[in-house]
């Protein structure tokens, strides 16, 4: 954890992270103030009377634990010693959100341990939108939309998708000795960094993200003076993907690290097996591999690799187009993934990252496809967006054939 000192009125515009408010003696003010900033703006705020080293499983159901700092030290077995990860300090935050600026006095204010958050006068008013959002903040599967069956079927197929053996072996062959990124200090220097495709079934989060972002293209654009086919337009999008997304959010670069150089493969007419590094805005980047490819779609699967470490999410994302009955096309991306570990899950709980950030990225994907089509003598109209975040067990039961599709969508008969 990097510590910086500033007041809540002069937080830098580029700052994203945790802010703790203390008096000049270093004691937490009014119990325990915690603010979570995203790009210089307050995203979430909470208060708790104490903090300490606790595991997420020890937190009460009305609390959430945020990883605060990782600790390491020298660990010896006989004569063999290595500098290894030892434990993580978590902040346990409970039961309270406040929409006002913090009181900087030591006394008064909110008091030290109050957690009920209510007026206590016996009166009851309907919850506000903010209160309802907070009530389901840690349970985004509490309210479920009625998603069309056709979209659910495609999500289930994507969740079932298994990366081929050749692609798995390629990822496993990315090896580095004695050179680890900062997150890998728990690995002894004599051991190779083990890369792998991330399995959605073994991810950390209890919530699965299922999203769909589509654009209806009524008339395909002109490319180099000729009307493009749908296949040509999709290929243009793939090879020039950074022109079709907000690169301040995420930027895609063909992998060229360690013993892998996939720049030519990614730009070829068949990029199956190409690894792509993604510079993601925020605390962690990620790598993906083209795990499936044909003329009307390609699929990215997330990785653990020595350059970027563990991708924030584990799962698959498909890009492609479908042909509509009226002759128009829908260009889309759909993803099915889960948060990969405890730290990213804490980031999602506190600040909505990475799911909200991903929603912004794929919204920019929609907007830039429309802009390109309309600026190149084509016609693109409606955007179609579906986001669905149920508990993983609900989707897993359908994937495993234990429950019917109708449990996910009433449109499925």
Chart the SSEs and their pairings.
Layout: E1 17-22, E2 28-38, E3 41-47, E4 63-77, E5 80-94, H1 129-135, H2 149-160, H3 165-172, E6 196-197, E7 208-219, E8 222-223, E9 226-227, H4 230-239, E10 250-254, E11 256-257, E12 260-261, H5 263-266, E13 275-280, E14 286-294, E15 297-305, E16 309-310, E17 313-323, E18 329-339, H6 342-351, H7 355-375, E19 379-388, H8 392-399
Antiparallel strand pairs: 1-2, 2-3, 4-5, 6-15, 7-18, 7-19, 8-9, 10-13, 11-12, 13-14, 14-15, 15-16, 15-17, 17-18
Task: Kindly list the characteristics that best describe this protein.
413 residues, alpha+beta, Alpha-D-Glucose-1,6-Bisphosphate, Chain A, domain 4, three-stranded antiparallel sheet, 19 strands, globular
**Number of separate helices:** 8
Q: How many angstroms does the end-to-end distance come to?
A: 51 Å
Q: Number of folding domains?
A: 2
Strand content: 25-35%
Mean model confidence by pLDDT: 73
General description of the model:
The chain has 413 residues and is of the alpha+beta class. The strands form 5 sheets. Strands 6, 7, 10, 13, 14, 15, 16, 17, 18 and 19 form a 10-stranded antiparallel beta sheet that branches. The relative contact order is 0.15. It has 8 helices and 19 strands. β17 (313-323) and β18 form a beta hairpin. The protein has 2 domains: 8-135, no CATH class; 149-407, START domain (Alpha-D-Glucose-1,6-Bisphosphate, Chain A, domain 4, 2-Layer Sandwich), CATH 3.30.530.20.
